[in-house]
């Protein structure tokens, strides 16, 4: 019993003394920080193998059948027909004997077997102005069937809209693409390289017209599809490159005729708005026709090659709203040919355009997207002429893409392909070297030397985003998506060869992944039945992955040049996978990326040209260079860890350049600032990086032409930048302040003493008058400032409270021109970005309220306030820099001097950090309060009263206040947490004491019973 009483007494004494005991609290700067691990990516694998099907036959294995006189005419044996068979689900001639090829061997109703090119029945041999001549078999196409009316009507409506709303410029360009050699037309896509190409091969054309000619019914047809665009290529410096174009265009299976005759679909100028073919007949029910030309049919050779045809021709009339270009009326299928010769689907001109473009693009991939976009434009121009419909053009693209892949995969063509790529690189590379450019840069820089004449402006193909959007639109033409949606992408066997030189640093498997992740959706007519060829978006694929559905490792060898040395991935990359960059080349990411697996840099350069270049995961640098060049700050959603290598930031403004949502862990590496486009003529403090936590520092920090020091705070890294060989102009001599701008009202612009357009200044200093504690500036004085310039308000004569008033007009101008404002008083200065003003059209006031001095402070005490529109701005999106002049006589250790603010709730002083320089201390804050400077370890930190007196706190045994003994550099005082632990301990002790007394009383009670 006595023992229990003794224990109770001890516990009571503990309760009485617990308020003077503090539990140990580990300062944040002493907490163990764990180095982030490398990104883990995903364990998923992407299978891009095409599904096994009996039909269509794989193109790369069976494309040779297109050269066989019998096999080429049957869908079951010619894969270039079977991949187009989705057209039969939209419109069909509905004659099985023609589809299976028996019409070519078994006599039809007229007693004759069809001939190759006849179409489904024997064609009519002509009216020849003889109204008594009757069609031998008027039931031609009697079985035709519109199987998908919605798509078929949309298809013809597109032609009606285009042909009824085309411009004169569009008409002339479409006429040229119709009558000129297709290779000649494709030359436009060479862009800045066209001059070099034309000088070497000397391409020619005999087709030269004017816009006025287009409104005339010309009585001639020019046929110039005989490689005039290749000129005299053999034996020239571009022989090997042109040999590939010749191979793809003429020696490889390239004819669209078997498909045209197989499907035998009508031309749009024969169809009404429902897609029906309705002949115009006279009162006797006989067909009406139009006659163009005169005399017997004749042909003559053109100077450039090809031929010109003239003579009388007859054209049957149909119910239609489609308008053929008048200059091309003579080129339509004549009545003597009948519909059997129509062959609208697929478009042969479109196919020839793509075949030519693929050859050029393989040899010169620096213009890959431009060549394919030019081919797409040539397809569109087939519609502008009134000769073809969207489905015809889509069919031509699908077929030529597959034909090209077949040629690229043939082993016997490997040497031709390699020579073409090397040849173009050497010839155009030499021209680029002469200009001091890389081949890619030269291929996309239109200079004054560009004199190549075409139907288009030289800048036509230079807008990459516009090219990309145009090409994707023409993959479907916006036709109804009434098929099955949501089908997985299908990458045809051998399709990866189409990207071989465009992405030479990727493996075949990776190029298939690129095609897979950039394909268009399913459900569009003709595309889903093409075994994947129709859904390939090669222009988007040329911009890299669309998603990381598995982990991607890129190893680039810059010594191989061209895209091995530098490539751009411009797509918005999604997915759960990670990116690992290896090798020596540069990979630039420009998209709005959201891939989640993280980014690992092990070699070379990885350039972030957008704010979200690295997706939503971690960024981990083992070696190599991270280059930041985006217009917006780079946002790393996870952790950013550097072990080695370098972080290079191209700066053109003083904004934060890097925002890390997680931890910024610097275990080595260098920081290099490129200020070549950001002229700094006075010292500047810029918050380069922000993070949830900053740990470590860079090994070296450099900036050509500038001295740079970096201060690493808990949540940011601040760079102090000063031009080499200059003193810090941030605190100019008050006897001779620098005033590059006119402080008074500028002279009247009409004054001849002033230049009409004075040079804009990157910085302007104004010294306003102060009346009754309020300072104002003249609005006109601001106009001397250049965009992103610095405005300094010199109030160094002011040692007390002052209020700077800015009008709504001034606020609007400062925000629009992204001006940084420096306000300098005698003992304190403030630097803030104009973007911190919330409203563009409301006046604002910046108030400096000097309070009574504190004995322990080493600087003046100021309360700062910004009001706008009658409301106080409590926090700032971009941090404000404060600089206090320090009384050096009060300072024992400069490294311990920090700026503190008074917490308005706890009334305690909390440190925000500080960097000592030339008798001043500087730090940043995102809110305003009361601020002053203390020397850490020496100052008694008590709340300040209105009269400047401090509330004393009990001292610890070593003479320091209990709060001061716990302060760590840059950390908030841990009072709140300590008191919490005290209360918890006290409660525990009271609980135990009460329990003991309860049992004592019970024991006593039991003894007296």
From TrEMBL:
Keywords: Cell wall, Membrane, Peptidoglycan-anchor, Secreted, Signal, Transmembrane, Transmembrane helix. Residues 304-408 form the Phosphatidic acid phosphatase type 2/haloperoxidase domain. It comes from the Bacteria. Its main location: secreted. InterPro entries: Autotrns_rpt, LPXTG_anchor, PAP2/HPO, PAP2/HPO_sf, Pectin_lyase_fold/virulence. It is a peptidoglycan-anchor. Residues 37-52 have a biased composition (Polar residues). Residues 1-27 form the signal peptide. Residues 32-66, 723-771, 946-973 are annotated as: Disordered. It is found in: Secreted, Cell wall. Pfam families: Gram_pos_anchor (PF00746), PAP2 (PF01569), PATR (PF12951). The chain crosses the membrane at residues 981-1000. This is LPXTG-motif cell wall anchor domain-containing protein. It comes from Terribacillus aidingensis.
């Amino acid at each position: 019993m006595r023992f229990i009483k003794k224990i109770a007494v001890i516990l009571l004494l503990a309760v009485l003394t617990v308020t003077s005991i503090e539990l140990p609290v580990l300062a944040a700067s002493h907490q163990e920080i764990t180095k982030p691990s490398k990104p883990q990516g995903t364990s998923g694998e992407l299978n891009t193998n095409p599904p096994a099907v009996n039909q269509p036959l794989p193109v790369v294995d069976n494309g040779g059948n297109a050269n066989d006189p019998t096999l080429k005419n049957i869908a079951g044996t010619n894969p270039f027909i079977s991949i187009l068979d989705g057209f039969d689900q939209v419109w069909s001639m509905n004659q099985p004997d023609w589809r299976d090829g028996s019409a070519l061997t078994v006599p039809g109703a007229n007693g004759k077997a069809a001939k190759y090119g006849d179409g489904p029945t024997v064609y009519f041999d002509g009216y020849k102005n003889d109204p008594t001549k009757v069609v031998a078999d008027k039931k031609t196409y009697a079985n035709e069937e519109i199987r998908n009316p919605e798509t078929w009507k949309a298809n013809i409506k597109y032609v009606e809209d285009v042909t009824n709303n085309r411009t004169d410029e569009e008409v002339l360009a479409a006429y040229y693409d119709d009558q000129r050699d297709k290779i000649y037309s494709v030359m436009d896509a060479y862009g800045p390289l066209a001059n070099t190409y034309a000088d070497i091969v000397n391409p020619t054309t005999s087709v030269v017209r004017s816009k006025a000619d287009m409104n005339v019914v010309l009585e001639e047809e020019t046929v110039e599809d005989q490689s005039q665009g290749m000129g005299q290529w053999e034996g020239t410096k571009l022989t090997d490159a042109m040999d590939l174009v010749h191979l793809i265009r003429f020696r490889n299976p390239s004819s669209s005729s078997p498909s045209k005759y197989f499907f035998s679909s009508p031309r749009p100028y024969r169809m009404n708005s429902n897609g029906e073919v309705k002949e115009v007949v006279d009162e006797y029910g006989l067909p009406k026709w139009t006659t163009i030309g005169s005399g017997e049919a004749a042909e003559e050779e053109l100077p450039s090659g090809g031929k010109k045809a003239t003579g009388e021709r007859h054209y049957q009339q149909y119910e239609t709203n489609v308008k053929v270009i008048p200059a091309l009326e003579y080129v339509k299928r004549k009545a003597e040919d009948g519909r059997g010769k129509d062959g609208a689907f697929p478009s042969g001109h479109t196919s020839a355009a793509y075949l030519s473009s693929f050859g050029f693009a393989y040899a010169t991939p620096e213009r890959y997207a431009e060549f394919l976009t030019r081919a797409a434009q040539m397809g569109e121009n087939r519609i502008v002429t009134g000769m073809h419909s969207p489905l015809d053009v889509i069919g031509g693209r699908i077929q030529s893409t597959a034909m090209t892949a077949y040629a690229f995969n043939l082993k016997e063509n490997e040497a031709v392909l390699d020579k073409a790529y090397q040849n173009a690189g050497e010839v155009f590379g030499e021209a680029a070297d002469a200009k001091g450019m890389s081949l890619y840069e030269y291929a996309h820089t239109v200079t004054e030397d560009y004199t190549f004449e075409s139907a288009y402006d030289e800048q036509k193909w230079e807008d990459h985003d516009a090219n990309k959007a145009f090409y994707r639109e023409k993959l479907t033409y916006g036709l109804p998506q009434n098929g099955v949606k949501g089908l997985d992408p299908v990458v045809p066997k051998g399709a990866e060869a189409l990207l071989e030189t465009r992405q030479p640093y990727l493996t075949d498997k990776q190029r298939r992944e690129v095609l897979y992740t950039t394909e268009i959706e399913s459900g569009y007519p003709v595309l889903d039945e093409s075994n994947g060829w129709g859904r390939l978006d090669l222009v988007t694929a040329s911009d890299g992955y669309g998603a990381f559905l598995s982990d991607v490792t890129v190893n680039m060898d810059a010594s191989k040049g061209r895209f091995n040395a530098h490539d751009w991935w411009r797509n918005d990359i999604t997915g759960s996978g990670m990116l690992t960059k290896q090798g020596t080349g540069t990979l630039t990411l420009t998209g709005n990326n959201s891939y989640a697996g993280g980014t690992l840099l092990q070699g070379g350069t990885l350039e972030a040209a957008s704010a979200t270049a690295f997706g939503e995961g971690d960024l981990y640098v083992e070696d190599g260079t991270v280059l930041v060049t985006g217009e917006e700050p780079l946002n790393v959603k996870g952790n950013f860890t550097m072990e080695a290598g370098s972080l290079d930031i191209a700066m053109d403004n003083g904004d934060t350049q890097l925002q890390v949502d997680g931890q910024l862990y610097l275990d080595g590496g260098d920081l290099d600032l490129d200020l070549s486009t950001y002229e700094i003529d006075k010292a500047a403090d810029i918050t380069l990086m922000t993070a949830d936590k900053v740990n470590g520092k860079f090994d070296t920090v450099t900036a050509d032409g500038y001295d740079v020091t970096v201060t690493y705070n808990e949540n940011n890294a601040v760079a102090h930048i000063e031009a080499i060989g200059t003193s810090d102009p941030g605190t100019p001599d008050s006897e001779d302040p620098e005033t590059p701008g006119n402080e008074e009202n500028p002279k009247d612009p009409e004054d001849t003493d002033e230049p009409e357009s004075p040079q804009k200044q990157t910085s302007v200093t104004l010294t306003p008058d102060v009346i009754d504690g309020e300072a104002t500036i003249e609005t006109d004085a601001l106009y001397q400032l250049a965009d992103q310039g610095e405005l300094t308000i010199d109030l160094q004569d002011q040692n007390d409270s002052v209020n700077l008033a800015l009008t709504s007009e001034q606020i609007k101008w400062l925000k629009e021109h992204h001006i940084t404002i420096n306000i300098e008083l005698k003992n304190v200065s403030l630097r803030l970005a104009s973007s911190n003003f919330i409203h563009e059209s409301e006046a604002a006031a910046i108030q400096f309220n000097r309070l009574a001095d504190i004995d322990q402070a080493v600087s003046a005490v100021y309360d700062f306030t910004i009001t706008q529109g009658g409301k106080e701005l409590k926090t700032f999106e971009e941090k404000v820099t404060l600089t206090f002049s320090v009384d050096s006589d009060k300072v024992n250790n400069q490294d311990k001097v920090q700026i503190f603010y008074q917490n308005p709730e706890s009334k305690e002083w909390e440190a925000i950090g500080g960097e000592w320089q030339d008798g001043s201390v500087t730090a940043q804050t995102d809110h305003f309060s009361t601020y002053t400077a203390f020397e850490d370890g020496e100052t008694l930190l008590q709340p300040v009263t209105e009269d400047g007196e401090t509330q004393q706190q009990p001292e610890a045994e070593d003479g320091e206040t209990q709060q001061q003994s716990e302060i760590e550099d840059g950390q908030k005082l841990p009072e709140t947490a300590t008191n919490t632990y005290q209360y918890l301990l006290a409660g525990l002790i009271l609980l135990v004491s009460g329990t003991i007394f309860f049992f004592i009383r019970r024991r006593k009670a039991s003894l007296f019973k």
